[in-house]
Request: fold
Amino acid sequence: MRRSLTLCLLVPAALLAACATGPAPLVTRLGDGVYKSPTAKDAEAYCRNFGAPLRYLDPKAAARAPNAEVTYRCD
Reply:
């Protein structure tokens, strides 16, 4: 009886904790201040969180394919 009560309390608590943390960030840290994101929009959103300007490491690639993976720095 106690196991089922414990299970009934732990499962909703775990679900609530998972929802409270939000989605995983769409940023991969490559080291030395370089980041990689799946889209240019995600990169802009990440740098905007810190109020830092975004600098693409390959601006031509970012302009050609805005929905493609980009590497950048938040300077």
Observations:
- The mean pLDDT is 78.
- Residues 2-21 form the longest helix (20 residues).
- The first strand starts at residue 28 and ends at 31.
